[in-house]
Structure formats: structure tokens, C-alpha cells
């Protein structure tokens, strides 16, 4: 039994080290913290992983990686919520992006089909400015898949999203992989937008205070590239 414990511990330590190397950089955590998360997740699942390790080390890596990512995302959202910085969510951001790229329409913002009221222009300006401010927080491949989805790829004949073309443009193996890459990219964009909003409003008085900016000035700032 002791031998089995040692073998398990050594294998999990190796996998946890690999996970920590990747995700400490991506989420800006300390490497030892990430490694501890992976090890803890492994021992919680030990009965299953004991069998899986012998047959498929890659599967074990995937299971622990997902556990670590889930925990880190929850911590990220919690920390934003506690500082009143969690303003945007990914669903809203994905809804707004088509209007952001259609520059003649972006100030209107998305329209809820069940509502007769359009978004306030100031709200749309703020959202567009925060998208602009968030670009630098994305990795090149994340920026590329968002651009492919909203700028490069034309809709299919039935008006849908051409995920096959997007996959080809960004070098993904299939439409499912491209869709997953877009989901991940917009999730990261949302986080970066919340950071941007916090920085942009922190110098102004009162919660939710806005920076005074004209539509014309905002349009120049938003359309000036990444």
C-alpha cells in the first residue's frame, strides 16, 4: 500500500507541476498555490484517479486541469464581486460585440427583442470603451478568434455563424474547437473589461461615476485599433 501511495504521489506531483506552470502564468497566481490546488483536487478524486493513471495520464491531466481552472475562475469572480468590479458578464459581452464592430451602429447598443427600450447611449459608450480598453488583456490567439468571428467570417447562407470558416482562419481543427476558443476568449475579454471599467471609473467621484466623453471622442478612441 505504501508503494502505491508513493507512486500515486509522484505521478500527481509531476502532473500538478505541469498544470501549475501553465495556469500560474495565465491567471497570474503563485505557482505553488496552483500546484497545491491540483494536488488537493487529485486526492479528493483518488479512488477514480488511481485506476485512470495507469491507463491514461492525459485524462488525469485534463481532470485536474479542469478542477483548477474552475476554482480559479470562481475566485476571480468572487474577488471582482467583493470589490464591486463585476459589472459585465460574458453573455452580455457576446451580445454587444456585433454592435461594437459595426461602427455606425455601436452607440445604440444591443436591443432586447422583448423590450421596446434601447440601451442608453452612455451605457453603450461605456461598454465600447471598456472593450477597447480590454484588448491589451487578451492573448493574440484570443483576439484573433474574436476578430475572425465578428470581422473576417461572413455569415452562412441561412444567416448563422460559419464556425468552419472561423476554425480555418484561426487554425483550429474543427468548428467545435473554434466555438470553444471563442467562448474562452470572450470570457477573458469580459474579465479584462471589468478591470478596464474599474480603472476608468476609479478616478471619478461616487460609485458608477462616468468619465465625461462626447460621442465623437468616444468614436475616435474606439475605432483607433487594438
Give an account of the 3D structure:
This protein has helices spanning 2-27, 31-44, 46-55, 57-82, 90-101, 121-134, 140-152, 163-170, 175-201, 215-222. It is built from ten helices and no strands. It folds into two domains: 2-82, no CATH class; 90-222, no CATH class. The protein starts with a helix and ends with a helix. Helices cover 70% and strands 0% of the residues. With 226 residues, the chain is an all-alpha fold.
Features:
mainly alpha, 226 residues, 10 helices
Spell out the blueprint of helices and strands.
Layout: H1 2-27, H2 31-44, H3 46-55, H4 57-82, H5 90-101, H6 121-134, H7 140-152, H8 163-170, H9 175-201, H10 215-222
Helix pairs in contact: 1-2, 1-4, 2-4, 3-4, 6-9, 6-10, 7-8, 7-9, 8-9
- The rounded distance between the terminal residues' Cα atoms is 57 Å
The low-pLDDT segments are 112-120, 205-218
Number of strands: 0
Radius of gyration: 21 Å
| Overall average pLDDT | 77
Structure class: mainly alpha
DSSP helix fraction: 55-70%
Secondary structure tally, helices = 10
The total domain count is: 2
**Main β-sheet description:** none
**Given the C-alpha coordinates, what overall shape results?**
globular
